[in-house]
């Protein structure tokens, strides 16, 4: 739905008894501007996620609500939750964590969430990468949350490949999750609407690293690596960063800055499409001079990472679902036939075989939005 379409909606505040935990939503859930937060058919997994939505301010279109009431069945069985549901839940767990920064026990809750995040990635790293690459442009209102999680993912994959100590990994993950806590809502508004920031918003953006670090310290965070990474994640080695323009020397701060920038480049905005992963990797490699960090990130994401929509030499269009034996030969799921016509069932193709080699990006990148991940990967529990 475009920005113009949202002006036709008549939004009503969502109340708790309009949805049921564990069952597919009968309507889309939106923010106060009409931007989609959860699509119809997605599942609210638990009461915590529902509480986070209600606290954030969730709305439903009056016409969608009317249609849902007309066909709603209270006896519908709850759907079994999948790994994709767990990733959706992670967004709302982070939302709840950041909103509760003033509550006692914040450092412990952040540590628990970081460890849960590691466990979720380890269940299937390819699906984790898929969600970071295949971002839904209809849900840009959540960018402030999803970008932090995607940055945390890139940090984790690179840190593990570089054999970073576990304690440092956790500090880095917590820094990625909290680096933008002072501007989460602002990031979502700017990403979804594409407006130029006002002077007041520019000031908030410039000050957010220090504001976040101060808020974390006030909440009881004593991990110096975590605090330093957050405070310095927009500083640069040449001293041309912000907010203080000091030379960045902290190793976790440097990793966080580079992954933050990389993930921002491959994320769509209302005012611009996402940069391709290949282009973002080329830029990173050039800037880093082929550093171990750049090499590790390229090896983890590959040339065609899970979520990439590609054209095969066979004529089929396909979505990358699994990394392959080499960075350029992933496993893909074809969603069209050789004539480019959509097919009902996806077909797995090994791109290391000459006839199914990747010829380049698929022509209609938005077409893949109609294909749910459950069709590509199967119902992963």
How would you portray this structure in words?
The chain is of the alpha+beta class. The chain has helices at residues 47-56, 62-71, 83-99, 106-123, 125-133, 143-161, 166-178, 184-193, 199-218, 224-231, 251-265, 277-288, 292-301, 373-377, and strands at 11-13, 29-30, 36-38, 59-61, 309-312, 317-322, 331-336, 342-350, 358-361. Mean pLDDT is 90; it is low at 1-6. The strands form 3 sheets. A 5-stranded antiparallel sheet has the order 8-7-6-5-9. A two-stranded antiparallel ribbon has the order 1-4. The chain has a two-stranded antiparallel sheet with strand order 2-3. The chain is built from 14 helices and 9 strands. The chain is globular and about 60 Å long. The relative contact order is 0.09. The longest helix has 20 residues, at 199-218.
Quick recap:
The protein is α+β, with helices and mostly antiparallel strands and 381 residues long. Helices cover 46% and strands 10% of the residues. It is globular.
Secondary-structure element pattern, one letter each: EEEHEHHHHHHHHHHHHEEEEEH
Class of secondary structure makeup:
alpha+beta
Mind describing the biggest β-sheet? 5 strands, antiparallel
Taking strands numbered 1, 2, ... along the chain, how are they ordered across the largest sheet? 8-7-6-5-9
Head-to-tail CA distance between termini: 30 Å
Helix tally? 14
How large, in whole angstroms, is the Cα Rg?
A: 21 Å
Strand content: 5-15%
Mean pLDDT: 90
Low-confidence stretches: 1-6
Strand elements, count:
9
The helical percent reads 40-55%
Shape: globular
